Amino acid sequence: MAPLLAMSGIKKHFAGVPALRGASLEISPGEVHALIGQNGAGKSTLIKILTGLYRRDDGDIEFAGEPSHLTSPREAQNAGIATIYQELNLVPLRSVSENVVMGQEPRTLGVLINWPEAHRRTREILSRFGIDIDVTAPLGSYSTAIQQLVAIARAVSMDAKLVIMDEPTSSLDSSEVEILFGVVRELKASGVSVLYVSHFLDELFQICDRVTIMRDGLTVGCTNIADTTKLDLIAGMLGRNAEEIAAEGQTELAGGNSAFDEVVLDVDNVATGPRLTDFSMTLHRGEIVGLGGLLGSGRTEAARSIFGLDHLSSGSMHLEGKSFNPSEPADAIRARIGFLTEDRKEEGIIPDMSVRENLTLALLPALRKNGQIDLEKEKALVAEFIKKLGIKTAHMDQPIRELSGGNQQKVLLARWLATKPDILILDEPTRGVDVGAKREIQAIIRRFVDDGHAVILISSEFEELVEGANRIVVMHEGRAVSELTNPGITENALVKALAHHEEAAT
Amino acid sequence: MLDQNAFDLRKYISRNPQSVAVWIALVVLIIFGLLRYDNFGGAYNITSFLNYNAMFIAISVGMCFVILTGGIDLSVGSVAAFTSVVAAYLSPYGIEVAMPLAILSGIGFGLFNAVCIVFLRIPPFITTLATMLGAKGGSLVISGAETIAVDWGSNFTQLGMEKAFNIVPWTIVIVGILVVGLWIVLEMTSLGRTILAVGGGEDASTMMGLKVNRAKIFVYALSGGCAGIAGVFLASGFGAGQPLEGVGWELSAIAAVVVGGTLLTGGLGSLPATVAGALLLGLVFNILNFENGKGWISFSAYWQMVIRGAFLFAVILFQTRVMNRQSKVEFAK
Amino acid sequence: MTSLITDEPMRTDFTRRLKQNGGLIALGIIILFNIIVTPNFLQAQTLAVNISQVATIAIVAMGMTLVIATGGIDLSVGAVMALSGALAPLIFQSEFGTAYPALGLVAALLFPLAAAFLCGLFNGTIVAVLKVQPIIATLILFISGRGIAQVLTNGNLQTFSNPEFSYLGTGKILGFPFQGWLALVIACLLFWLVNRTIFGRYLLAVGGNERAAKLSGGPVRKVKIGAYVLCSVLSGLAGLIVVAINSASDAARNGNLMELDAIAAAVVGGALLQGGKAPIFGAILGAVIIQLVKYTLLANGVEDEVALIAKAAIILAAVYIQQARKE
User: Fold this and answer.
1) Is C7's Cβ below 8 Å from some Cβ in A?
2) Closest chain A C-alpha to C209 CA, distance in angstroms
3) Is C208's CB within 8 Å of A348's CB?
4) pLDDT tens track for C193-239
């Protein structure tokens, strides 16, 4: 059978950095096709090229037998490609009905929107998902899960030939996931293809026919789901064979197994809101504690609570035995805590500022001298860190936006190291940096810990957690549900703990 | 609301607290005025009040559409001044020529704004600030900085002086038709809903495949057109094109829109409530005039500005509280 | 969320260079044009006239630059000028002011500036604490600030004769107007503030990436409020200068449309509307260009009204060139 969609040799650069280096993807009619890969493998870019949000630099796309040159989401929609993006792309202020029918609303007299019909149609579509809500209410007044299902309902209602679902289950509970799977099967039965992107590998085995694996902007494999195993898929994403993963270390994080007795930070039953309801952990000097969990499990929220970004609604924290309740980041920084955030662009760098200014941003209060910044001291310090961390920059006054991702990340790491913290919270410290820089960053973290400091590590890269962390606190739906202790943690054990937290061995 | 199967008053109130509040305030103020002043309910006061405020309702309605998309139009005052001069020059050809052409000139400014904002990606506030200057300069140039008397021999002045069926001033009829027409556009057409969606999330609207650019071009052209209508009313009501008028009108319009409960960030708002907001602002000054007439207090005209600002401040305080509540709802699980 | 506009091709070097040196090039062209066309342009008198005119625009534009650096805008500058300008004569012409001329003079300088300070505090608090968009937040005082000034003076023109106070606008040092020197001193102070102090570093960081600044422990609220306060106080000072120049205070006209001049000067001088840049001397350059365009048109018999259109065109062109670079 001729494929519904054939993408081949797709290339895409962003500001000179390759995101796709010749990716391909083929989907048959009526097939549920999985697309997997680590963060930064190029899945999202590939999808955005398919739906006309990005223009490809090179490569061919054929859709329904015709060469495809879509330039906007609207054209994609008209061509029969409906997409549910990872970030919700609906309008919370507007009614549920509007969010479902906008773009193909029912009309009377060819002009006026037939609202009764629109509401009726919306209710009908939602009832397929087992949802019975007031469709005239603003979408934003409903939970994230319902919003997610509404987004899916909208896409499904488009009479599409291909429905793209980018992490559709990240905010759904298990019964909602079952409803979604029912709809996916229904779509498949009616001949619609589904491109299914997910980090939850178990799901793929339940509903997908084939799986395409991407790594570093390339398509590295495509197999029938029945012919593969979860470990094979992980191996494919990581670029190792399965035995190798078990056998040797892949990171520079491993090492240091001294005894830990001095507790630095003690977090007890902390809650900050719906996304973090019950979180506890202890952190010792010289230790890396990993926070394991899937997207939306509350890892980042846990970090934010410790850093004073979200205020505690219940629970308590103790820092070196003293009660600790920071009300803003400046408090946490004074208490010698640093927080390397996940989103480098949005929450990390100040793009137009120089390497020097970015590096000393958290340190400014300490650089005050006679009411102004001690430039001599600042320059000396920056030069020292550039040398120590091997930051590749033309000079310290180069704008940070001109640096590569890995070097930007090193500057941000230096921003925190310069404050001489006792505790560093690292949220995805090696995301989106190349392999070399990744190892260097890991080595820096290792040295920091070996000097007697402590690290809380959040990472989607299993090997970083498995090898680096002394302990892993596994999180699920805003709660710390179990703890794994090294030595003895394997990737399989972690995957298992994440997928079925209730079965996790403690 | 037109978009509900069965009208549910309680639901409407809980979803539109500010719109309801402005209607209540309006009614309370009217009752207060009726009880306190003898001539408040008289035909003369009602007619002259509506006649004068027709201009402000027109620009407020246009402004409402712009703000619903999350934009702003600071040029309405000087565009209205410009079109009043155009209308005055064209008045000898009669209302049927002068009015459409004057409105078209307003739409022209609106389209210029739209091009700068949509295609050159210049922020709305800077674009319309520049157009405000440009239109002001333009009207001073074509008028020679003088008021331009309209041709009293033509039928142009009938617009501001005469009444339809001897009851309602023509300006009110025109504004009424405008408001109802635009209300239908907003509530019942794809274009209207796209405008709301754009204000609620421009990226999301693009992703949903909506015609975002078309919606944005429409609102700025509309706002220019509405300013054009206000300009025609200005010229006919005062018997002259007024190149120096229009100062601060954009603020009155923004205040009316905000008082009516439309979110400044766009995406949520009501056209009738905007009209109510404009009437409420006008009424406050009408009542102040009566109060001055009673001799109890003496508010100089300068207090108007202060009160207008205080009003805006109060409404902003109110809105931030409502917004905070809503954003909390949004993240509720 | 990732922006949809990451996909634009890199712009050419040309627009970047044009953007970086556009102001200076424009200034050169205007001066050259004037030397050739305008009679008596190269005379000390012309220079002095222009300096005395440009100083107020420059002072306000520098304040505006600080606000724009945080990603904000201040529409109330003209109204604050009117307010402080109205207060000064009220104070030194009061009974107290005439009884103790020296004290009255000091009070006439300090009280208006304190009032301006409060205006800035008001603006900054609404923006930074209530998180209202700056355009709307500053609209409040834009409307009522001038209203308050008119209420205070009953809308009357206040004329006075007070040589000490008028020195602000008519004094000369080394043959150049006092306010020119004042603007220069302020520029040097602000340049130091932006480039050498912690406040300045945070100011640029807040405009460059507010979330990152906050996460690095930056006092975001204080910095924003500080920018609005500085802008207001500088506007208040400009208002005093205008009153001193005229030996009269007219609340209806003092600072009218100044917000436009100031924004235009700041943008022409290289301030990014998105924030993150605070070119203090750029603001002066921008003010000089705006003033010279006005002067050129006037001196060559072009009507004042056309100058408005020219100003509008300058603003649009400057922002467009900026946007083009940004994408």
Assistant:
1) yes
2) 5
3) no
4) 999 999 999 999 999 999 999 999 889 999 999 999 999 999 999 99
ipTM of the complex: 0.82
| Sign of the CA dihedral running A156, A162, A166, A172 | positive
Per-residue pLDDT, A296:
66
Contact residues for A452 (Cβ-Cβ < 8 A; gap 6+): A285, A286
Looking at beta carbons, which residues of chain C come within 8 Å of B125? 73, 135
Give the C-alpha separation, B150 to B143, whole Å.
12
Is A351 touching C (CB cutoff 8 A)? yes
Who among A85, A119, A144 is closest to B207 (CB)? Answer: A85
Which pLDDT belongs to residue B276?
A: 93
Tokens coding B95 = 């209302």
Give the three-class secondary structure for B148: strand
Query: Which residues in C lie closer than 8 A to residue B258 (C-beta atoms)?
Result: 136
Give the pLDDT of residue B332.
33
* Residues paired with C190 in a beta bridge: none
Residues of C in contact with B72 (CB under 8 A): 135
Q: Provide DSSP, C117-147.
A: HHHHHHHHHHHHTS---HHHHHHHHHHHHHH
* Residues 399-458, chain A, touching C (beta carbon < 8 A): 415
**C-alpha of A473 from chain center:** 18
Tokens of C76: 């109330």
User: Would you call A14 and C6 a contact, using CB atoms and an 8 Å cutoff?
Assistant: yes
| C211 to chain A: closest CA residue | A347
Q: Which of C241, C279, C245 is nearest to C64 (CA)?
A: C279
Tell me the DSSP string of B311-330: HHHHHHHHHHHHHHHHHHHH
pLDDT at position C224 is 96
pLDDT of residue A500: 57
Which residue in A has a C-alpha nearest to residue C193's C-alpha?
A372
Of the partner residues B5, B199, B209, the one whose CB lies closest to the CB of residue A74: B209
Is B204 within 8 Å of chain C by CB? no
Q: Which residues contact B144 (CB under 8 A, 6 or more apart)?
A: none
Chains in touch with A (3+ beta-carbon pairs under 8 Å) read: B, C
Task: Assess contact for C263 and C312: CB atoms under 8 A.
Answer: no
Helices C77-92 & C220-246, crossing angle to 10 degrees? 60
Question: Would you call A346 and C7 a contact, using CB atoms and an 8 Å cutoff?
Answer: no
Q: Decide if B223 contacts B216 (C-beta within 8 A).
A: no
Interface test with A, best of B193, B262, B270 (most A CBs within 10 A): B193
Q: Do residues A283 and A425 make contact, with C-beta atoms less than 8 angstroms apart?
A: no
- Asked if pLDDT for residue C11 goes beyond 50, the answer is no
Question: CB distance from B206 to chain C under 8 Å?
Answer: yes
- Integer Cα distance of A220 and A210 in angstroms: 14
Which amino acid belongs to residue A390? Answer: G
Tens of each residue's pLDDT in chain B, 333 residues: 344 445 567 777 777 777 788 888 889 989 998 988 888 888 888 888 888 899 999 999 999 999 999 999 999 999 999 999 999 999 888 888 899 999 999 999 999 999 999 999 888 988 998 899 899 999 988 888 888 888 887 788 777 677 767 778 888 899 999 999 999 999 999 999 999 999 988 888 888 888 999 999 999 999 999 999 999 999 988 888 888 888 778 888 988 898 888 888 888 888 999 999 999 888 888 888 887 777 666 667 778 778 878 877 887 787 776 655 554 443 332
Cβ distance B127 to C316 less than 8 Å, yes or no, reads yes
The beta-strand segments (E) located in A123-185 are 162-166
Distance, in angstroms, between C327 CA and closest chain A CA? 12
| B204 Cα to chain A: minimum distance (Å) | 4
Residue A447: CB atoms within 10 Å? 15
- Alpha-carbon separation of residue C177 from C44, C45, C248 (angstroms): 12, 11, 18
